[in-house]
């Protein structure tokens, strides 16, 4: 096991935005986060005052700030040392870039610790001026009055990619300023494919299954692996399959949200993924107990032909100088029945805390200037190469920076080009279909381990798939109802595949494509 494997097992982030057991760069594991819990905490902040404080030093720069102009920001980029150092050194450059005197301190916090640290800091009025977070958290904190809107800064740019253009939007304001995108990648072990008689990665779902079967038959190795356990990364893969099947996890009618996780399309997506194990026998043994880190390890050891996982895995293969890197191709997620190559998208934003809760009282303009500075293309040139291929742009102007123009890294050009191309076809649950963020994602993700409890129950618990998706959806409805001022009624009807979209019926009937498992 590598150094970073050990570090990731101790983290709650799933990358991916890989809210990757965990990889860096992903959205954090929501088990450690609750909007309801934060709201209760926020109600006691005034009484708590400065007495609570932030317990202990949390890493980063040893200089904790000693004079006028002190400015503290938190990042979760502590998993790859070279990346961390580049980001820290770039942040220090703000001292020369800013119009006013400022002394920048970078604190590195891991995803599995940051929720407790945020709570303690807000209670003790010792929060950072700016913090990395996920946009869902920015919306939650913003609607509770702890984070400033960054709408004016956001609207200075008109070249946002589609999903980032509404990623931090809620209630007429933008609360999270998109920093970078991170997506699920499709990995192919070409050595195993060639041994099984194939010379290129699959381009469609059908080719994926057929090639994976050939690998199983001809090499005895695993055809396909991703997270299969009750794990945030697993839920992200399920969501990507759902999006490629024409479905979504949420809907919206006027001012009210609905939950679509127990629709016929969602049922199909769960059955299609379960078919890897139950019908086509191309998943690894014990898949239901494997999280994203376990899946990555299997692939990196050369024992799987295909993998969906974070971009961090690619970075580590290169950093560790592993043989699997030479055999690996990164390509678009194979095309689904709706003709799309959609991948799950996560990532991070930068948000400024209100000065009532920060350790150092700085002008709001300084916080916004820091966010602007860190996300300007010329600034990102200083650290994006060290974050390749995991960090991806959120707007078109950022495509003109290294490593997307001049690649000085050891990452193959093809890997970077593939990731950049994939960034054009992504979706984020709770955001894409609604074209705005939501005030309940923190709670509902936590109640369902990132929407993975249904597939985990199907793969490992032998539960009826229809019951599993309905149970998960009802748990989400309860969480949504707790966060809004109307009640989402519990569903008692089981979904029927006869009502699934026409494009999915060939898979359901086995008409020209491999038939899905349908107990």
From TrEMBL:
Region (Disordered): 1-37
Pfam families (UniProt xref): SBP_bac_1 (PF01547)
Biased composition (Basic and acidic residues): 1-12
Coiled coil: none
Domain of life: Archaea
Protein name: Extracellular solute-binding protein
Organism in which the protein naturally occurs: Halalkalicoccus tibetensis
């Amino acid at each position: 096991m590598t150094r970073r494997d050990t570090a990731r097992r101790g983290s709650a982030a799933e990358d991916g935005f890989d809210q990757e057991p965990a990889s860096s760069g992903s959205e954090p594991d929501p088990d450690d986060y609750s909007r309801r819990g934060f709201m209760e905490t926020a109600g006691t902040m005034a009484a708590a005052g400065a007495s609570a404080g932030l317990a202990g030093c949390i890493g980063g720069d040893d200089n904790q700030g000693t004079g006028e102009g002190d400015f503290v920001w938190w990042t979760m980029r502590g998993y790859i040392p070279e990346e961390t150092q580049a980001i820290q050194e770039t942040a220090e450059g703000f001292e020369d870039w800013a119009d006013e005197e400022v002394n920048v301190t970078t604190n590195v916090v891991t995803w599995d610790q940051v929720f407790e640290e945020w709570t303690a800091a807000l209670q003790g009025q010792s929060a950072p001026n700016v913090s990395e977070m996920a946009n869902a958290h920015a919306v939650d904190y913003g609607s509770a009055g702890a984070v400033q809107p960054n709408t004016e800064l956001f609207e200075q740019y008109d070249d946002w990619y589609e999903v980032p253009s509404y990623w931090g939007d809620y209630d007429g304001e933008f609360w999270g300023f998109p920093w970078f995108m991170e997506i699920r990648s499709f990995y192919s072990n070409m050595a195993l494919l060639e041994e099984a008689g194939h010379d290129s990665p699959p381009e469609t779902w059908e080719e994926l299954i057929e090639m994976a079967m050939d690998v199983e038959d001809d090499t005895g190795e695993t055809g396909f692996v991703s997270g299969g356990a009750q794990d945030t990364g697993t839920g992200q893969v399920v969501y990507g399959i759902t999006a490629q099947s024409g479905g979504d996890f949420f809907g919206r009618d006027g001012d009210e949200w609905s939950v679509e996780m127990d629709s016929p399309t969602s049922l199909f997506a769960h059955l299609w993924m379960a078919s890897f194990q139950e019908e086509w026998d191309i998943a690894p043994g014990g898949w239901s107990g494997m999280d994203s880190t376990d899946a990555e390890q299997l692939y990196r050891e050369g024992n799987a032909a295909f993998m969906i996982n974070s971009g961090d895995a690619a970075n580590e293969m290169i950093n560790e100088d592993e043989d699997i890197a030479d055999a690996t191709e990164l390509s678009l997620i194979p095309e689904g029945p709706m003709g799309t190559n959609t991948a799950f998208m996560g990532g991070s934003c930068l948000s400024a805390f209100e000065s009532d809760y920060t350790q150092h009282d700085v002008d709001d303009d300084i916080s916004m200037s820091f966010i602007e500075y860190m996300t300007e293309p010329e600034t990102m040139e200083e650290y994006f190469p060290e974050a390749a291929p995991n960090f991806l742009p959120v707007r078109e102007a950022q495509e003109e920076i290294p490593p997307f123009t001049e690649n000085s890294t050891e990452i193959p050009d093809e890997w970077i080009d593939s990731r950049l191309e994939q960034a054009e076809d992504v979706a984020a649950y709770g955001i894409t279909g609604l074209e705005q963020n939501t005030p309940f994602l923190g709670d509902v993700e936590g109640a369902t381990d990132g929407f993975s409890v249904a597939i985990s129950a199907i793969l490992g618990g032998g539960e009826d798939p229809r019951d599993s998706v309905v149970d998960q959806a009802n748990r989400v409805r309860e969480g949504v109802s707790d966060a809004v001022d109307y009640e989402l009624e519990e569903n008692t009807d089981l979904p029927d595949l006869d009502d699934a979209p026409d494009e999915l019926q060939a898979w359901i009937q086995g008409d020209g494509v491999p038939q899905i498992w349908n107990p």
